[in-house]
# Entry
Amino acid sequence: MTDLAKRSLLALAAASAVATLVGCGKKEEAAPAAPAASAPASAAAASAPAALKIAFAYVGPVGDGGWTFAHDNGRKAVEKEFGDKVQTIGVEKVPEGPDAERVMRDLVGQGYTMVFGTTFGHMESMLKVAADNPKVKFEHATGFKTAENLRTYDSRTYEGAYMAGVVAGSMTKTNVLGVVGSIPIPEVIRNINSFTLGAQSVNPKIKTKVVWVNEWYNPPKETEAATALIDGGADVLMQNTDSAAVLKTAEEKGKRAVGWDSDMSAYGPKAHLGSAVINWGPYYTKAVRDMLDGKWATGQAWWGVKEGAIDFVSVAADVPEAAKKKLDEVKAGLKDGSFVIWKGPIADNAGKPVLEKDKVADDAFLGGIKFYVKGVEGKVPGEGK
# Structure
């Protein structure tokens, strides 16, 4: 481990007992000592700009095989694209709450001038740190609050969920699907609903059961929830959690499942029907290029299939050709804008219309979904309060 990596690790450990450093290869080598005043620096060295120092705060471990793994792949894409123009660091297990603020302040103190927070619960911490450090640029994944030096970005994961539904609805034998939900915020509820809509587009008999674990990453709880869904009759599972536990459980119990955020096929080869993946590389590359070119500006970005940020990959060989064809049609339509997932008529699971016939949901509508669509059983936690 280099001197700089050691110093980073020690500082971050002091900031958060659960924060650990992700190795970044040669990008984290300590800078050579400054030459003595009497030693003339070469013209090339004098004119070479310092590398842009970029930090990524991860909510989970890189080895989760899902959400954080996908973000770290995006970090690696930045290094590959910009080489010695950048120096990156990843910090694992930065929790949602006060610890996140301490970690981010420490990163700024180490000279990182671009900081990415990768979970909804980092939002308030980033706002506070951004307000105190106007020269540093902050980027927050999945949030909705911005500042002059803080912008938000997200991926249209509901597009991947819909495609997963098309496959799941084609493969179920019980007509009961199961979803392991993380935290009942609009982002996750939207994915559950989109998964159900995709399944119903090929199989109107579909019902979806949901078990919430109220955490992003907790493999034992995810396993327990997946088991409960299978015991309740679900034979195809999806998740909106960060580990591969749901797919592993399906593999062990002879059921089927889809991967989430990253290609999870290796975790359950027999159970795996395909994976709804996020490619953060395109956005991270754009954001860093904005910084290097002096064009960074606050705002909000929400990228999907059209921008190359969402895909459904590694489709199982036994998925029917009709479902594969439908999947290809959906992808093509999302890419060129000819297909819209959230288009009426759509009703909630109590029968109340939420989108009238032919009406298309805008991003404001999608960002505030707090209901289950028809076919999803139960109530959204907190609904009616």
User: Anything to note?
Assistant: The domain at 3-30+46-155 is CATH 3.40.50.2300 (Rossmann fold). The first strand starts at residue 20 and ends at 22.
